Structure formats: structure tokens, C-alpha cells
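task queued by scheduler; priority normal; single chain, no ligands, no partner chains; default sampling; output format set to C-alpha cells
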Amino acid sequence: MIMKNYKFIDLFAGIGGFHTAMHSVGGKCVFASEWDKNARVSYEANYKAIEPNLFKKDDKGNYLYFNEDINDAVPSKIPNFDVCCGGFPCQPFSVAGLKRGFDDTRGTLFFNIANIIKQKIEAGYPPRVLFLENVRGLKTHDNGQTLKVILATLEELGYGYSYEVLNAKYFGVPQNRERLFIIAWYKELVNVETFKFPFGIAPDGSTIYEKSKLKEGTLPTKVSDIFEPEETLDAKFTISDGLWEGHQRRKERNKQNGKGFGYSLFNKDSVYTSTISARYWKDGSEILIDQSDKGLNPRKLTPVEAGRLQGYRILGNGWQNPECANNQNYNDSNMEFKIVVSNKEAYHQFGNSVAIPVIKRLAEEIVKQLM
């Protein structure tokens, strides 16, 4: 029997990638925390209509459930929940003793998650599932010590866990983006040995559960899936001569030194781009779109395209290939996401976000396997 109505909290929420995914499988968000003021603006603008209660204020005008600083969150005031979502920052632990568990996490942002969970367990409301995301490098961070402490903490709190690195390019978005996911379940409530990860989506839309099956093919992608119509593009997205020359010089220099890169160039038929990052707004170097056929310097992605690259359904000026408006990420079964901040902030927010199709497929599996 699958739980139909479940509640989740959204920690280090960014612009709400987890919220979009959990909402799509019937989850109700009862608490969210995000400190970046521009990300908070985007979050409220996009989720207030579906979750008005989340943005309630007290008579002094303070948010009750939309927390700003996780360090100020009082666990007893957080409504009880079934799933804790969080893309927490990767920080080293000052490993105090040899306990390798809860106490070793003090002073880090992971401690805030662990502490909320601990308080809920002590109050008799243990969260059923933890749905955590981090950079791939967490596996090797501080010689693997950081991950060891996190997993030991989960064990100490009574959770079983599975973790895996997943790549967005296998889930129907044209982006090579690897992220580490940890799925944990409270053993007294959920009797499973392991969590079966989805590794990608097959061309027929079904889930691929075995890494080896990926080579048989996944949902086909190409970079132009995310493009806005060419005739709507503002010339400002084409990079200047100075910037283009600088990129090429740096690439040459790095090649000679055998390290780093200068820029990465893609065209409409490329299967996927490299990973978009929060610094994309600076110079666009990690994803430039070739325009040499028009005699122009390369261009940056528009903010709308940057969001689509992460799987958000953003209408913008429409699609260069109209059929893409009906694919599994952008058709109207998906929530529309609105950009309400400056271009610079939009790039920054999308670069920091999770890839929606990956989170969505994980959310579906969590409901199926653990709820």
C-alpha cells in the first residue's frame, strides 16, 4: 500500500527543484529553508499558488514556515513530515573523535539536517525518508572522510541508505551533469534492504534500473531541444570580439600547460552540453553555442534556455523546434516555471539547481519503493 498524502520539507531549497519534483508525485511542502534573497523571490513566485500555507506570516510579518537561515530553524516548530529533501553544501568535518557520527558533524550545514531529524525522532515523529543531493566530489571529499561521517550519522539515527552518482544526460535533458544522491529510510518504518536507483529513462519512457542497460539507449536529446526561436534572440547573447579572443587565448594557454579549459563550444545537433554552473553569467565559457554558419561569434544560452537545460518548463519565446514543447519535460503535465529575477541571477540560480527530470524520477521511485 503506497502512502498517498505525504509531507516533505525542502532544505537548502534554492529555486525549488525538489519542490517541483515532489509536488509532481503528490507531496505537500510544509517547511522550506533558503538564505539567498533572490532565490527566495523566485521560490515564492513559483510555489505560492500551489502551496499558499508555506508562505504564511505571523502578525509581525515574519514567515512561519519559509525559513531564511537554517541555523535559526527550531526543529520543534517545523511541522512533522515524511520526507526531508536537501541539496546541502559540501563542507569538510573537523572530525573530533573516532565516533564518526552525529557529533562529528557539528558546525557544518549537514548538522542542521541531522539535528532536525534527531529532534523529530525524539519527539516520536521519525521522518520516513531522507532525499539528499550533492556534488559528485562528495564521494572523494577529504579522502572520503566527509561521506563516511554523513553515512555514519544516518546509521546512528536509525536509517538504512543507498547512494549513487546519476547523470542528467540519461534522463532526457541535453546536459552532462553528474550528481551524488543519498536515499535513506527509517528502518523501523520501512522494511527494505536497499533502494533501487533509476539510472536513466529508456526511449519508451520506462525507467532503466541497470547501469549496463544505458548503452542500449536512453531518451534521445540534442542541444537545440532547449532553444528559443532564432528570430527572437537578442544580439546581446552573442559574445563580444574581446571576450571571444580571450576565451581562445586562454584555451591555447591551458592546452600548453596541460590543465584547465578555455571554453566549450556546442551546436544545435550536439547530443548534450557540459555542466552549467552558477558562474555561467560571467562569460558563458562552459557552454557556448556555435554561430559560425552565420559569420557570428558564439552566443551564450538565454536564461530561458539555461532553465530548460535543467528540465524546467519555461515558456519564454517558445521553441526553435515546436515539437519540443510537447516532450516529457516541457509539455503541460509539467509545472510552468517563471523567471522573475535579473538575467544574472537567473543564470546563477539555474546553475545551482538540480536537474528536474532526475529528481522527478527519484521522487517516483521513493514513493513506489519506500512510501
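post-processing summary
- The radius of gyration is 21 Å.
- DSSP finds nine helices and eleven strands in the chain.
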